[in-house]
């Protein structure tokens, strides 16, 4: 494995996930077939929801490969999907819910489960029989081993039903449940507060926290998700009882309801809203009803889509499966000699019928969702394993979920994702973190706000994940053709790998370790293990060498030289033998033959010395008696290290009286419990070791069998005196917790050691048990050497070289080299025509000859700074080089408009990069008439500004008062855009000021109104933990206003004067940003298909079509495709012909770029900060313009009811009647919507304090 194998004495059973379902195809164009890979998917919620979320989209084929190491999970999921496929005659939605989610069943449910399990067992004797069955076209298995393991579980289900009435069966399950509860209470506390549940109720997490906690506790107390389970449901459910035992507790916080979108249970929805509950239930019962309703809708959607859906299962460690696929892609072979699981000696060999040369099973994927696999195994391991399987398409994404170390340090944690060099290593891997470069995401941080509020700012142990989507950087640039491979000097790559090595193994820093041991700190690795070993570094370098232009062998030589002299890491020298042979096996170092005999070996009569050939590395298998491993097991359980686990190292070291002590270590070990047998003679090359495994694992009494590859040179150094040992991994916590038990001196924490020639406990073979060759990492390495760099095509294409800081090794800039090969270009160079640079996009610089006589675009794989780019022009040699520094995500203006970028594919289809698609008509509609229930909406809209953006906005309003009627605008268009979004949200909901759904974007000095936005509804978007505005957009163009339909449109525009319309004043930059975003908002909810006549597909077209005033923005494919009765405005049938539907969502900063939550928030919420809440009425925050009271218009000194903007009272208000009230503070009064809009930007926004009945966290997060 690419990560240390953790020895977890407790391995909880995870029957379902604890985060809400997402659409797996959310970032893919509608109607395009999709291949998906899922890591460790606990249940089928994502698959079911995807079918539901896509029901209004053009049809697509969906092929999902689900890799999970637990065959019990796969068996559950496949059985449920089979029930769904069999239709309603097989069982109602309620019965399927009971079987899949409840811990106890009644007789009828048990009979249904038994019948289904027997049916599956009958058609699963082998892959051929299964794939020919009625299920085989939809449910498939990637290898015979997976099907066999799953069939065994189904058989156990049948046996459990037969034993359902036995006392032994019931007592065993009750004992397992008791152990689960005790384990939960010990690790999580008796309250069981799990912050992951807040995401399921988002964006109403604040309001629902109590009910969510009570729901989870109820499930753990009773085994049921509902309040009133049937009294006859008393039989332990085999779907749980087969997997659980005293040693395998139920994972916390397992709760069936957490996989659903539960905000709909609490929100006030319109009468005709999707997901609206018809009953009177509230609180916990409503949460259950909402989940059951969604389950029924999702299962029905899957059944309808089944003909277009394929779900493939592989029971294996995800790294094993990924590297086997990489090797399969390169060679067609189905066995890369990886073990199936972290524990055990079963090899993974994929089915030839599926993955052979004639197989049609996907090997590369449009979507790779790794869930939170990075938390346990490291993001670096995930990217080098799954990254090469990502299709080279702009829409393809590899998703990782990461738990940063704390809200206040998230931005600092970005580089730590990839061992301190995330920007550089991601560039070399060819992967771009799209949320980082856009500094933008559609997902809100509602769960973060709950976490910091409930915990007073503490994030210790709380799982608030942030998603990072990785895309091929060449695709993100949006260029055609894409940039070629990056040129990297071997010494630069070796230096960077060495620096990453130092960060990987910081725990071996002798000075830091001494400090940790002296202070008693658990740092740096409180879980007593690292996420990487030396093999991870080798794999990283190999994958990079496949991705860039470099000399792989020279990289290996330089890196090996650096590590050979490193003295900063305590165990560098001990790990050098393993590092060397892993480099040889990976093709990064030339293999030196090992002689079969050597006079220096000390004993050439050792059996393996008689082999005909001795490979660079051989397998050492050590058998450890129970008496030696059981004390470790006891301490792990006592100290709660049984869950996180601890890692083991294999060792060879000198023993006896050897004066020249030596020691070699091997961290890539494979472990199982059982008894060893052999085949063949020890002194024969074909000697084989076999293990009869004991499934009782740590709870049995079998020996612990540990196998690892060891260097042949090290093995033969001093054969008579060499000891073979297994030790605990060297980490501060291991030393403190286990040192007494192992009774070993520092730095060795040996569990067991014995002489190399101990034939009872030591077995030397060419390969470890179950394998026939060395495992292949990252497929095959291409021929070494740097390929020819010259470009001889008439249309020149650039190649790029990476430039690194010599001191820090951080990435500084890219050199783009372009050969001028055309006759025209050469002539212009010879004529010494002036050459200038123009920025076409954050990724593209146009080289412009003269007055655009020739324009050559240079597409960089990352955002760069044109203004700081240096130019080298070789007029005689005929090339141009651009040395361009990369842009910082939060500080460089070139990325201001890179918010929700949309690029044009080769076919002309618009491709969105970072905005999830959704079916608007399936989302719940909020009832805006009930303002009290919309409090959360203000929080969501207010928090779009990061702390930095909020400071910039405040500084703008702190400047001199505007001299005209225009509101002051920030110099940053992104800030102004978010301000406009906030206004749209507040006015369309009626939470602040008047209420209108009609908005006009206006440049008063440049043509007036440029765009209309009609808000039809505000919908819950639970997958983004937020809301979305369901809108129709009408961007005006000269063609539209002057063409044949102009008369019809102008009549409607004249009618608009009579309607309540909010005019949003924008400047040139903000208007351009809106135009850039419109294609993404339209594509996000597109239910129609682009036609062959689409304007985007025309030669030379762009997305959007134009950014110029009066230019056309959107294609005409979606124009007029609006639902009936979409908005209630006069002559809508006329206006709708010109409108396009768009899903406008809020935009939040990326937490890995900058701080998204103010650290002061918990204290302010807890105490309500008297100075803040009770500041004098009408007083503005210090430093803002016009401090003090506003005379007759102040909150305190209001003389009667008068308009706070113009001063009119009820008596002289045009038309008479009551003055309108600010719905936020309930104090300010206005005679018209116009007066309220005029007063807000420069005056009332600074003094509007939430009314007492509306106060709470929103008051702080609003625009105070």
UniProtKB/TrEMBL annotation:
Task: Please tell me whether the keyword Cell division is annotated for this protein.
Answer: no
The answer to keyword Repeat applying to this record is no
Return the PROSITE patterns for the record.
ZF_MYND_1 (PS01360), ZF_MYND_2 (PS50865)
Q: Which GO terms describe its molecular function?
A: DNA-binding transcription factor activity, RNA polymerase II-specific; zinc ion binding
Q: Which positions fall inside the MYND-type domain? A: 1203-1248
Keywords per UniProt: Metal-binding, Zinc, Zinc-finger
InterPro entries in the record, alphabetically?
DUF4470, TF_DEAF-1, Znf_MYND
Q: Which domain of life is it from?
A: Eukaryota
What GO CC terms are in its UniProt record? Answer: nucleus
Q: Protein name, please?
A: MYND-type domain-containing protein
